[in-house]
Structures are given as structure tokens and as C-alpha cells.
Batch of 3 targets.
Target 1
Amino acid sequence: MISISDRFKDFLNMAGALLWAFLIIASWAGGGNPRMVIYGLIACAAVIVVYYLQGAVTNGKMSVKILIYPVLLNALFWVIAFSMIYYTRGQNLDLVCGMHPGFLSAMIFFWLGSFVTATLSFYLFFRSDYLPDETWDRFIASVRTMEKIR
Amino acid sequence: MGTTEQLIQPSATTIAFTVIFIIVSIGFGLYARKYAKTAEQFFGGTKTFGGITIGLASAAAVMSAFGFIGGPGLVYKFGFTSIWMTIACGPGFAFGYWIIGKRMRAMAEVTDVATLPDIARVRFQSQTIRGLLAAGLFLASVAYLSSQVKGGAKLMTQMLGISEEWSVVVIFGVTLAYMLVSGMSGSILTDAFQGLVMLAGVVGVIFAFFALTGGDLTPIATSANFGPSFVDGAGAMPLQIIITFSLIFFLGVVAQPTMLSKMYALKDHRDLKTAGLIGGLTYGLTSLVWILVGYGALYIVASGGHEAIKDLDKASFLFLSKTGGVLQALVMAGLLAAIMSTASFFISLGAGSVTRDLAGALGHEIPYEKQIKIGRFIQVLVTLFAVGFGYWGGRAVAILGTLGWGFFASVTIPTFVIGLLWKRCSTEGVISGLSLALLLNILLPVLENFKIFKLPFPYYLLTIGTAIIATVLISFATKTCAGENIPPQIKPIFDL
């Protein structure tokens, strides 16, 4: 298990803020410098990791299994998809199954890849990792000892 | 508003589908009355519905007319670029549940939740945040509703052959009718039904697309009018726009009020699992409409089946004109479902923001027992105002019409995503983020619309990024409701 401490979350949020600043810069500069665009797209993958690492934890911990799938795998699929569309853009290539290779990679790696990682994993790991019954019961027990906040 | 060219001739099948759809929607809305007894249920549907209902309703409310009309129009003009928005959204549902679902649902155990500003007020112990958020939600609700007016009018004209004015009366009159009876609970239940109708429409689109094109985009790739950039994965818009579209629509799904508010509408915490799955899959399937209808329209023009179109909103109707009978009726019913499901949610959101939150933030808390009655009155005002604005607003509609997805993300990500994930997120941090978000979301579209200044990328990337950066930096320097100062009832949320 990996500990996601409060101090680590401080670091993650600062990293997130810097990444957002970079995204704005990359988008602004990307018109004149396409290379900034691919850097910006890779930064997008990093941003989702930042939020995954804060949200997909239970009791301040994340299992290695969750870190790999969906967190890092989701980001990897994005990097592959973005790289493919970047390097094949505007090119007159043979269609694959009726689709341009860039189109196909966006649909396979970004769309389907994100479904297989984010969506399927949420369903599969909901009770075991995301919200075990005992975690919720413990939460309810602690809330019931206090008056409702208004 | 003008007249719409009649690309499709209303048929008995289409009219029958439309009438049945409207009657059933009203029926569900009226049935939901029993789930609208308390203010929490009327404004929020709080802790009322199961995972499948919430999943379907979330997807239906997120997929608006834009996904059926505007999106395909952008595909027609620019190829794949706009599709990044919709392919990011589908899997974004589950991502949103991963990062914040259990915490949002948990807030309904800690306090009496009816609206999103309720949660913000309780987390940050601040009427200022409540007021800022409520004002922003109200403004954007009106903007969203107004932007549905035009699309809805054109649709009903095609479906029923009636004037655009009567189209508006039918769509918004029917929606308001069941909203008055059952509020957000009615919206959720009818949205779930409308989500199923949209799925049926998707099936129709898939069949129609492959019957038309055989799944081969070669005519588009080799067309002198279009070419490889219309079939590749980047499209014809400036490349840097994909940064915004991919991230803001993936992360931004959870930031939409349509998603956030449904998380605390779940009856049981275990329903989060189904809601996250069903919502994402439903939206993902309906996003095929955006892709296939857009490429279908491109194929028709590229293969010489129709002259090039200038009004991008016609792309969808051009595609539908090549289908017929039940298929056409099914798809158009799906489009009507998209419009009404979105409209019903924002009528409720706008009314709740005024009744519960703006009034309270300004020191005039409306007595609990009067909130539903006054809320109904405000729903009528919101609807009339939005429709009038959409009809006569002219340039203002174009400006405010851009307030939508990005605007919501810029106010809710700092407040709820960062606020419920990071203990150090302070009241001062969120106030800073919200204030900048509100300012920039008005200023930038005005500058753009009056051709004074335009960013080389969608302006909402700047507003969202700025709001987040400000929230984080100010939070590091301040302490109200942060760290050890978080209200004790909220602390267990961070241990989930």
C-alpha cells in the first residue's frame, strides 16, 4: 500500500497548480510552436494522475494495484493516443478499417482506453478498494456521534 | 428568430413518437411528486434514487442539444477536433466518481443537502462562498437554458412542422409543467426515461450511418472540399485546442452541476458503483451520435449527395433527411430528450440557487416550510426569463451562451474537487478562486465578442486554470476551515 499523506497532497496540489499554468502556456504558445502542444497534451495526462492520487485513496492509502490500474495505465493510454494523433495529423495515410490511423488511435487508446481504465476499474474495485462497507460504516459511526452541521 | 429550412418533412410516425414521448415525460414528472415532499427532495432529490436511475439521468442531463446538433455541425466544419470533447466526457463520468463520488455522497450524511451551495457553505462555513457560487450557478443556468431555445425551436419545427415560436412554447411549457409539480426529483426521473430514449436514438444512428457509408470515410479523405485533415485524429481546428477539449471535458464532467448534484441524490452509498458505470456507458454510447451524424453529413456532401451546407446546425438534419420512418423518428425523439432533460435540470438549479442560496447568502433565509412554494414561483420566472433572453437576447445570448461547461468547471473544481480532496484548501482560497472565475468568465467573452481580444484557445482553459491556481496558492497562505480548522463534522469525509 502507498501512503498518500496530507503532506503529499500539499505537494500534489502545488504540482497541479504548476501543471495548469504550463497548460495555459502550452496552449498559448502552441499556435506558433506545435511541439509545445504535444508537451501540453502529455501534461494533461499528468494532471489526471494528480487528481487520481488524491481521490482514488481509501483511509489515506492507495494499493499498488490501483496505482497501476487505472491510474498509470489511464495516463499511458492518453500519452499513446496523443502521440499518434500528433505525428499522423494531416497526413494522407491508408485507412485502417475505414478510419485514418490518427482517428483510430484516438478512439481505441483515448476513448476505449479511458473506459477500460477509469470506468471498468471503478466497477470492479468498488467494494474491495474504493469504498469497502467497513469504511463507510466507520464513517457513519463517527458522523452519528456529532450533531449535523448546518 | 427567423424560419428554419424544412429539410425533413414531418411524418405521422415522427409526430406520433413526439406526442407519446411528451405524454410519457409528463407522466413520469407527475409520478415523481411523491418524491418531492421536502425541500431537500424538491431542490436536490437528495438520497432518493438508485444507481441506474441516477446513471441514466446524469448522462441525459449532461448530453444536451449540443451533442445532437452543435457537435455534428462542428464535425462537419472541422473534422475530429470537436470530438475530443465528447470522447473525453464518457469515461470522465467514472473518473469523477473515482475522485469525488464517495465524498459528495457522504456530505448528505453530514448535513441536510438540497443544493450545491449548501455543501459549499457547510465545508467552508461561509455565506460569501454560498452567495458567489449561487450567483454563478444562476447566471450559467439562465445562459444554458437560453442556448437550448434556438436548438429546440429548430428541432420541433423539423419534427412537427410548426413555427419556431410554438416549438419553444411546447418544449419549455411541457418541461416547466412537470418541474412545477415535482422539482428536481421530477427532473431526475424524467431524465432517466429520456436517457433510455436517447439510447434508442443511438441505435438508430448507428444503423443509419453504416447503411449510408458502409463505415468507409474514403470519400471524405479524398474529397477536394475536405481531405485528410477531416479524417485524422486532430481535425482542422488549431492543434492546441485539443489540450483544452481533452482535459476540460474529462475532468470537467465531475465539475458539472448535473453530475455533482446527482451524487448526493443516491439513496445508498453502494449505488455509487452502478451510477458511475451506467452514467459513463450511457453517455459514451450517446456520444456516437456526435461522431456518426457529423461524419455522416460530411460523407453525404463529399460523395455528392447534397451541396455543401453553410449553416452548421443543418448538418444533423441533413443526415436525418437521408433516413426515414421509425429510424428518423427515433433519432429525433432522442434529440428532444436531450434538450428537455438538460432544460429541466437547469430550471431546477436556477430556481434552487435563488430560493435557497442567494436569498440566504444575502441574509434573507426563506423559511423552510415556504421554500417549495416560492421555488415553484421562481421556476416560472427563470424559465420565462431564459426563454425570453434566448429569443430576443441577440448578441448577449452569443456572449452568455459560452457560459456553460467551462464556467461550471471554473467554480466547482476549486470548491468541491479541491475542497473535498485537500484539507489545506481554505475559505480564503476558494473565495479568491471563485471571484477570479466569475470576473474572467464575464470579461473574456465580452472582449472576444466585441473583437477586442481573443485567446488562441478556448478562454475557459484560462478561467479554470486561474481559479485553481489562485485557490491553491492562497490556501497555502491562509487557514480558515483548513487543516485543523476544518469543522469536526467534515473531518471524517477526508478519511473515506
Target 2
Amino acid sequence: MLTKRIIPCLDIKDGRTVKGTNFVNLRDAGDPVELGALYAQQGADELVFLDITATVEKRKTLSELVNRIAHHINIPFTVGGGISSVEDVSVLLQNGADKISVNTSAFKKPELIRELEKQFGSQCVVLAIDTKKEEDGEWYVYLNGGRTKTDMKCIDWAKKGVQLGAGEILLTSMNHDGTKAGFAVDITKELATTLPIPVIASGGGGSMQHFVDIFEEGKADAALAASIFHFKEIAIPDLKAYLKGKDIEVRI
Amino acid sequence: MNLVIIKYNAGNIQSVLYALERIGVEAVVTDDHALIKKADKVIFPGVGEASSAMQYLNERGLDELIKNLQQPVLGICLGMQLMCKYSEENNTECLGIFDEKVKLFKPTDAAVKVPQIGWNTIYDLKTDLFKGLPDNSYCYFVHGYYAALGEHTIATTDYVQPYSSGLYKDNFYGVQFHPEKSAAVGEQILKNFILNA
């Protein structure tokens, strides 16, 4: 049976793994190559490597770092941050990334998703969406690492992304990110039960029960977290044993 | 050991090369007919779309070359599907090494996503390709099309229905999952191909 996936995320700034609260207050969380290899060894199902400074500062993702990480890990690996063209993606794939994620650039130029799907296949195109629930009760899409609000509703953009050829959705709730108060069950469930492609839930995972909730109630296909792994608050083997104990299919 | 990875217009060739490096094996990535023919073993990887891949192979005469290889060949993911007879993906005539047909997953339950992305188990394992691996070992899969069960099935996986996650005939092996991305299990399969196939 296909398992639920546990995905540590390595947010990268200036070559170091960092983690903040609600997209700000960044703290150093170690060397991404060491962390990536450690997580793979501990049973992580995939890794996501996001160069969080890339979009704002217009930097290209550090393909050299990607290459180093790819040499050391034996599980699938997604790279994101500042990707805005087929050429960008080609370089990252050549350096060992299995998938790439697009966010702001795809929103500004949706055709990018189709171009990437045509060139590399939907299986390697992850559409990352940062979303925030506003006072009107609706979830809106945010760009530029959560700095820029749009008028687009999250579900509408996700559906559009699927039409254009995205292979997975990486959904980050800005209301929950960094809070350790649990994932955004409602919006995750809406996407996961509406879309025909896998949804990776991100933001808010703070306890092992939160992962149970996002898989069982939120219907997520995968759950992504960073700080709880980086700061060793939850060990991946313990998390997987806990999930298995709750009859959730995981790879152990 | 002279190991060759066939170079063509399908992604993830680099990942296969790195995985071999991690287990201490060097390989050459090439589309040169002479180099492929004289290799001790050949890996035919791939992620992508069947018709454009077949067109690319046909234009370069790689289709005939691959079919007629005598040394052990391991097809991975799209590589395995292209070794089958036919793929529903854009109605593509494939290499026909395996008689099995490649079809699109058609789940009746809307909660089942296509493509299948993630870790699933392989069972009913046959041949030394899976030596040392217990039934229900986990491997990493990314695919929307599958090869049906048939006489050449050497590994089975359940998604929508049981299907062939491994095929074998003569000197040809194929796996639907990605051994290069399947952690220790995948490394064992690559080692088995190199040492035992």
C-alpha cells in the first residue's frame, strides 16, 4: 500500500539551513548537507530544499549545494526558490534534483508550469502555494515568501495549477507555519479531496499527534516540517513508529 | 566492470549515476552505439513521456540496438515501460521485449491519485535482482501508467490493482520504481544487478 510521506524541509539562506516563525525571525539550524544525509538515514521519505532568499533577492538557487546534497542522499529530493525558467530547472535537475517547486514565478507567469510539464513531465513539477486565512474566512495566495498578498483564492490557484500540469501541491499555511500548533486541517482537506494530485501539507507540525490529524482528517498525502526535526524535538523514527501505531501506513 | 547508462531525452540520468557512485560503481553515460554494445551491463533509466522518448530512440537507431543487446540490461521506470510491447501513453508502440502492455491507472475511488507518487511495497519477488530483500520491501514510485501482470512479472505492487513492479526475460530486467531513490532497498537492487544479474 502506498504510504503517507514524512518530508523534512531544509530552508536555505546563504548556504545554511534556517528556520523562523511565520516566515520571519530566522535562526541558524545547521549544515544542509549534513542534515539531508542524516534525515535520509533516519527514514525521511523525501527532502525539500527551498532557497528562501532566492525570490526576494533575485538570487539563483545554489545549484552547487544541490549537487553536494544529491551526492549524499538516496531518497527523492525537491528543490525550490527563485526558479523562473526552463533553463533554471534544467540546471537543477542536472545537479541531481528529482523535482523542482515553483511558487511566485508560476503565479506571475502560469504558462511556466505548462512549459515545465512539457519539458520535464508533471512528476517533477511541484506547485508551492503559501496561503493565509483572512478575516473574511477565505484562504488567499501569498507571494514572495509570504510578503505579498494576492486576491486569488488558494483553491482556485491550486485547480489552475493542476490544469497547467503540476504534479503535486506543496501547501503552506502562513497562519500555522512556525507555530507548532498543528497543521491547517481544513484547507489541506479541501485541496486533498478536490484535486486529483497529491497534496503535501506544510506549516504548524509541532507534535506527533498533529501528523496523525493531518493525515486522517486533513487527508494529506505527505506532511512537511522543518524546525521540529532540525531542533530534534521529534525524531523521524519515533514519529513513524507513532503513526504506525495509529494504523497509518508509513515506511519503516 | 564496464557499466553504461543509456543517454536519451529522459530525465534523472544524473540521479542514477550518483546512486551508482554511492555504492562505489563507476558508469559511463552515453548514446554511442559502439560503447553501449561492448558494455558488460547496461542501465536504461528514464522519467518522462513514452511517445517522445520512443521517437528519440527510433531516430537514433537506439530502439533496435537496445532490443538486440545480449548483456544484462536494467530498465528503470519509463525505461521499463519502453521495454514493453505497447503503452497507452499517447498510443505508443514500444520495444516489445516484454509482452506486457502499459496502461493508465484508472482508479474507481476518487481519493486514489494518479500518478502514484511515493513509497509502496514490492512482493512475490523472483530472480537474484531481489536477492536479500524480504517481501514487502518499500520502494519509491512515480508513475501514472503501469505494466499489467504477466508471465514476465518478477515483482508485484498494489495500486488500484496488482501490477508488475518488476519484469524479467532472458537478459532483460525492468523495474517500475526508482532503485536510485529507494534508500537501502534500492541500493541492494542496484548491487544485485551489478553482482548477480
Target 3
Amino acid sequence: MDDVTGLLWRILAGPLCAAVVIVLICRRSPFYADFSPVMERSAGAVIAIAFLLGSTWFAWMALDAVKTGNVTTSPTYRFIDVGDLEVNVNWSLDRLSVMMAMIVCVVSLCIFVYSVGYMHGDPGINRFFAKLSFFVFSMLGIVFSGNLVMMFVFWELVGVSSYLLIGYWYQRPAAAEAGKKAFIVNRIGDFGFLLGILLVWNVTGSVDFTDIRNYLKAHPAEVSGGVLTIPALLIFCGAVGKSAQLPLHVWLPDAMEGPTPVSALIHAATMVAAGVYMLCRVSFLVFASPAAMDVIAWIGGLTALLSAVIACQQNDIKRILAYSTLSQLGYMVMAVGLSVPQVNGYMPAMFHLSTHAFFKSLLFLSAGSVIIAFHHAEQDIWKMGGLWKKMPITTACFTVGLLALTGFPGLSGFFSKETILGLARERNEDLFTLATVTAGFTSFYMFRALFVAFLGQPRSEAAGKVKESPWVVLGPLVALAILSVIGGYTWMGIPGWLVGDKGLSEAPAGTNVLLLAMLAFVMGLALAVVFYLCGPAEDPVKTKFPFLHRILWNKFGFDEFYLALVKYVQGGLAALCELVDRWVIAGAGVRGTAGVAQTLGKMLQLFQTGGLQTYAFLFAAGLVIILYYVVTQ
Amino acid sequence: MNLSSLKLEMATAGLGMLVLMLGAFTRRDDKRFLGAISAIGLTAILAWSVCCGAVMGVGFDGMWVNDAMALFFKRLFLIATILVTVMSAGFAGKIESGVGEFFALILFACTGMMLTASVNDFVMLFVSLETVTITFYILTSYLRRQVPSLEAGVKYLILGALSSAFLVYGITFIYGATGGTSFSGLAEFLKVNGAGGLVLLGVMLVLAGLGFKVASVPFHIWVPDVYQGAPTPVTAFLAVGSKAAGFALLLRLLYGGLLPMKATWVALIAVLAALTILYGNLAAIPQKNIKRLLGYSSISHAGFLLLGVAAATAFGTGAALFYLFAYVFTNLGAFLVIVCMANATADDEIASYAGLARRSPLLAAAMTVALVSLAGVPPMAGFFAKFLIFSAVIGQQLWWLAAVGAVGVVASLYYYLGVVKAMYWQEPRQEAAIAVGLTMKVALWFVMAATLAIGVFQGPVVEWAFEAARELVK
């Protein structure tokens, strides 16, 4: 057994050090006055990328170590030791975590390089890279956490850093609001997560993954009969928040206010994937409760369908991708809920997570490339059009991402989506139908975006003047495009790696699954062709089905509902509290007691006449009172 | 054995003599170096007490006892006196004549305080107490051309004489009843005959005399006037040294002589503690003068210390000892700032502290640390001291007493933070920066660091205080 704890520390230390170093030295300073311009403009990017490269290298070494087998990690030190609660700083090192770490590192690396181009000339670029690095650190922390408490700590760090990143352009009210919304909505889910951790600790007496797993194995009788349903569902709440599932999905589309690399990083490969990863990490817990699994599967399925439907009538290119992310996350969560309850049963979900990380960040970055071409001024697809002539590489990359997302045969998304559909077919017919319908919608809204934004004729003056982006932007696109194509093949080995040598009852997607999925794809495509390929100036759905358009445009009114909830319920409570605070607490309580104290203090001053005779008299009188008190007692 | 157990006191008194002699041969402008000699000499004695100068045991026919508690107090007095001499060196510019004598008197007062720590007999009690008090009569009125100082001196002299009279009067009753002056003899007598009649009268009179020293209600009435009028280093010394000496004597008497009537004094001290806390904290609220404010604050701290005594356990006594230790650094920190401020602004009004943060960030920070610690806010020393005191009181299930203490703490936050608010959030009357000398800077940094360090790493001090308390309470 090789102890590779040090390796894990090194992986984690990379981005953290980068963040610290950037904050400390990348500024104007008398110590290196001559270099100040360099320090202010480009040092941050260089440092962040260099440290991330190091982490990626160490992650690769960890992957290698796990492959050869026989690795172990040791707890570094005791973190909390209160009563029965014992939390060590320890790490998870297995196929699941190293693969996730590898994905995070590789995708982040592409996004970091891309950011150099995307954020070019932004005055806060060092701050940006410091935050990005800190975010990657938090994410890697989640990946390697060996117990629920550590995971929760990093979970919250991800929440904080996502808040910082989404609100990066804090001068814009919309960005600041979106950051706040993401943070608060996530906190709601995290509250459930925390309760879940407490309950799990209550039931099993430990928060350590290995210990909990062993306990469940050793005491099957005590954890049967739904004891774990509530804890599992509460822990799932955390995933609902982070992975933006119904009904806490509302933050993700708004989070598109952040810079596009942030959208790609947070909403493709890392933060939202953290929820699914966490479910896979605690799969042994989830698998112990069939009821919880049902709930998880249905929430995932409904999120997938609902978001796909909403995406059909969005006009902002990033928002379309945001809803598409929601929809794909729904697939993954559904896959967790439908898993075969056995070791590594989470393989389909993780498989889709990996391929999705590649093609979704590709799509976001392509959209970002378009936004660069529009000088960060336009994101409405109805103002674009005809981009393919001027931006062939971006268009090609977007198309590759699109085909992977819609599950076109031969690309990575095809394999992972078929795995999930096959699983659904086997485990739950209703959800299979739902997922297949979702696939149809997926191909509709994605081809809509392609047809409207990239094909046809320019729809605005700006669209006629676009230029292809520089290679620092296109390089990562091409790299991700390649990964999106090959990511799903057996020889890339993602599913095989996940299943490992333990073996999984292979559920090959039957021919009819394949046929139905292809049918859905073709129908979506056909509808999109009918509506959009002819190059309409306005969305035909909007003119022909105004009612449908309005519902979808309003995203089924979730935001309005929550706003009303906050306004009337929370606002009402707050008003009540304000009344109590003003009149009872501040008025009677604070001012009252303060007044009494002041008055008493002034009265006591009356004793202090300054006259010596008075003092001597008071002294003697005090003595007499004491004597009287003692003698009569 | 007998004389060797006195060698720390003799060394301190000798140092005082030396300073007195040197003072006679020093030019007027160089007298501040006497402060340096005093501080260095005291530091040497402190070091000596730690390494080899402490001879433990009972001597002089049981009149004198050197135990862990005696040593605790002696070191405490030495530390307090070192800081006071440093402070006096910064203050020396305001003393018209007799700077050498000023330092010598401080050292003599320190000798007296160290004597109180080992007292085990009523005669010793009176002698050591008067050594302290008479020195303070002179020190209080040292600025003899200034009316406030003179007034403070006269008030302190007459009220102090009154309390000494009560004390001696009480001792005569005790001598009349028991036929001796030793604490142990009194304890024997009380065990056999119970507390009553003349001996009870005598004990109460003696306790009243000690109550005057520690500034407990109803014998506190002199405190605000004297604290305000006395030269600032003397006020500081009164607040920490004289008060601690009073507590040393009180603890010795309560556990050496009055243990058989424990129930009586626990009830009495509990009531007095509650009244003292309420009086000190409430009366401090409307104050406008910082020294007067700290006078009332010192009354309230006497109340908190009495809480620890009223708990009447080894834990409570240990808590009180820790409280005293924390209080020395905290309170002297505040007075160091007052000395610096008085050099710059010539008055002690709280209004003069407005905007201090802009004029001297160091002074404002040191004052804030001191006040926040006095108020008992974590992580300062004062917080942990109050924490221990409250634990002791609650451990004895004296809920009402803990509640009164809590009320006092809340009220104290108001007036302490009022000063902080003035320093940081009010416009200064004038913008001129305040210069602080190097010695004072070092002292300020040291006191701030100590206040924080005792609050964060309480372990060693707690161990030390509790060891002393366990030996006393048994």
C-alpha cells in the first residue's frame, strides 16, 4: 500500500497557492515598480495557469497510482473532537474521485487559457484569476473530501467562490443580484444538507464515508425500513441546490450574468456537477433507501423535461445553454435515482457528467467566442445570424458540442445518454418516456439556436461585422471539441474505469431504445428545420402561439412565485418583527432599561457630594447597617 | 529561616533606599533615570523570586507565612509596580519637585503590599496595611500646588484614618475576646465559642477596614474623588496595587481566621458584591472624566472580585486571583494611555478623547484593548477572568448573584464602549498628532500583548492562580 496523502495535498495546494500568490503580489508595488504594469495585467493569468498545470500533473499521477492499485491515504489530523463527534481531515482516493479531479483539472485548464483571451483588457483580470483558482481549489476539495463535514466545508467554499465569480462585474446591478440569488438559493439547499449530515451521524454514529459504509454493511437490520429515507433526502437537498434541480433551479439561468468562462466553469464541469458527484459519493447511503431513490429519479426527470421546454423559447444564447445544463443535470440526477443499487451503480450518471463536462463547456466557450465577436454587447440570438461565414471555427466547434449534446451517434453524448436511457428503460418505463421526450426537445432548442444564430443572413449590423476570435480562444475550443467527440468511446475507458474490476451487470441499450432516441432527435431537428431554417426575422412560435410563448418566456412563473413568496410571507414576517423590534425591544426593552440605568446612575451621583463630612457619615452609616444585618441574621 | 523569608521585601525596601539616595545626587533633569533604576531593580527582584529568592514556610511565631498564594501576590505586586514606575517615568515631567522621593515612595508602597501577602496576624495586618496606606497619603497629594491633588490627598487621609481607626478598634475587640492577635487563635476561638457578641463586632470592624481598601460598597465613597484628583500613576497604583493588597489581606483573614463563621461572611460578601457591582456600573454611566470613570469601574471590579470570594471555593478564589492578574495588565494599559493623553491635552475629560484614533492610532488601540478587556469581551484577558468568576458563582448555584453580575457587565459595556465610540467615531477637537515616547510605546505594546495573550493562552496563569488558591482554601 502506497500512502499518497502528500499527492492529494499537492493537488489541492496548487490552485489555493495560485489564489494567494496572485492576491499578494499581482498589484502595483514599490518593491517592483518596473514590473508593475506586467504584474497588473498578465501575471495573474500566468501564475494561475502554471499552478493549475501542476495540479493537473499531480492529478494525473494520482490517477496512475489508483490504476496500479494499492494506494491509501491517511488522516492528517483531528479537525473536530467533541463528545461523540469525531471529524478527521481525511481524503477519498478512489477511481471516482481521481476521475472527477482529472475532469475538473482538464476542463479548468482549457477555461483558464480561454479566459486570457476572453478577459483581455479587463481591469480586474488578476482578481478574476485569483477567484477562479480559489474556486477550483474548493471544487477539488469537494472531490477529495473523505467525510461529510469536510465535504460540507468545501461545499460552502464553492458556494462563496461562485458568489464571487457570478458577481464578478459587481458594478452591474444584475450581476450583483444574480450572485446573491445563487448564494441564497444554494444556502437553502445547504441547510437541508447540513440537517442530513446531522441525521446520518445520528443514525450511524459517524460522518466518515468509509465508516458509514461499513456501518451500513454491518447493521443491515437497523438501517432497513426507511430509517435512511429522510437523511438521504435531506442530503439530496444539498444536491438540489448545487445541481440546480427543481424547485431550486432558479439561480442557474440568472448566474449567466457572470463572465462566460465562469459560466462554462461553474455551470458545465464543476459546481453544478458537484451535486451529482456528491450523490455518487454517498451512493451507498442513497441506495439504502428505495423511496429516496424514487424521489431523486422523479425530480431529476421532471427537471430535465421542464428545463428543456423552457429552453425552447429563450433568446439569450447563454440562457439557452443554461437551461440545457439544467436539463442535462436532470438526466444525471435521474440516473442516480435509477441506479442499480450496487457498488459502482452510479456509473451512468458519472459517465454523462464526464461527457457533459466536455461538450457543455465547449458550447459555453463557443458562445463566449461569439460574444467576444460582438464586443460583449450582444447575446440575443435574434440579433445574430450568418456567423458561420465569418467565424467558421467557432461555428464548427459549436456544432460539435451541439451534436454531442443532442446525442448524435458517434459523439460522446450519444454513448452516455444511451446508457442513461437504457437504464431508464430497464428500471422505470414512465421516466424513460419522459427522458425520450426531453431528448426531442433538446434537439429542437439546440438546432433552433444554431439555425438562428449561426446560419442564414446577419440579422443586425453588428452581426455583419464579426471577426473570428484569436487562437488563445480557439485553442481551448478545439481541444474541448476533440474531447467531446472521443470522450464516450470504450477505448477512452470512462465507463470501464468507473466500473473498475468490480464488474457491473451490463445493461446494453437495446435496439428499440436506440431507435426511439433517434426518432426523438430527428423529430426535434425536423421541427427546428421547419420553423427556423428559412431564416424568419422573428420567432414564429411567438407569433403563432403567443400563449405558449408567454408561459415559456416566463419560465412557468417560478421566479414570480418565489418573489411573491418572499414579498408576502417573508416580508410580512419581517414587518411583524420590525414592529416588535421597534416598540417592544428597542422601545420598552432597550430605551426603557437604558433610561432606568441612566436615571439610577444619576441618582447614585447624589451621594457623591464631595463633602468630607458626608463621606465620613456615609462610611459610618454603612458600617452600622452591616452590623445590624449581621447581628440580626 | 525567619529573616531569609523576608528577603524579597528587604530587597524592595533596599531598592527604595537606593533610589532615595541616588535622587539626592541627581540633577533635576536626569531624574527620570531613577524610574529606569526602579523598574530594572524590580525586574531583577521579580526574576530572583522566580529562580531562587522564594523561601517557603511559616515564620516569626506564625505571624508570617510564605506560601504559593503569598508568592502569587508578591509577583503580582512586583509586576504592577514595574509598570507603574514606567508610567511614572512618563509622568515625571509634571512633578515639580521630589521626583526621586516619588519613585522611592512607590517602592516603599510596593514593599508594604508585598508584606500584606504574607500576613497571618492582626498586628502584621495593621502594620503592613499602614505601610501601604501612609505612603499613599503622600503620593495622592504629591502635586501639592494643584488643588485637586491636595483635595484628593486630604479626603484620602481623613477617610483612610477613619477606616484605620475602625480597623484598630476591631482588633482590640478581637484581642479582648481571644487574648491573642493571631488568625489561627481567632479561628480556634470561633470554633469553640461561635461568633457572637464583641468578637463579631471586632471582626466586622476589621472587615470594614479592609472593605475600604478594596473599595467595596458601602466603604467605596472616597474612590471617585480620590481617583480623579490624584496624580495619574498614583491612581493607577491605587486601582491595582492597593486594591490587590486589600484582597490579599481579605483572603488571608477569611480563610486563616474566619473559616468557622464561613456561612456568615459568605452571605455578607455576596450581598456586598451585588451592591458593589450595581453601584459601580450604574454610577459610571453618566461620568464625563476618564479617571473618575475608571474609579467607578474599579468599584465594579471590586464587586466582581468579591463574587469570586463569595463563591468560597478553591475555584472561586482561583478565579479571583486570575481576575486580579488580568486586571493589572488591563487597567494599567488604560492608565498608560491616560498619562500619554494628559501630557498632550492637559485634561482628563472623555470629550478630549474624541477622534483619538486619527491623532494617535496606537493610543486609541491600546485604550480600546484595555476597555474591551475591562468590559469582558473575548478574546481579551478580562473575558476569561469574568468567565471563571461566573463559572465559580454558578457552580455554587448562586443564580441571583450571577444575574446581578450579568446586569453589571451589560451596563459596563455601555460606558466602556462610549469611550471607544468617542475615540473612533467622533470628530477630534484638534487634529494635531500626539507624540508618544519610546518607553511608553514599548510599555503600551507590552500591556496590549499581555492582555491579549492572557486571554488566549490562559493555561499557565490559570494553573498558577488555582494552585495558589488550592493551598489557601485546602
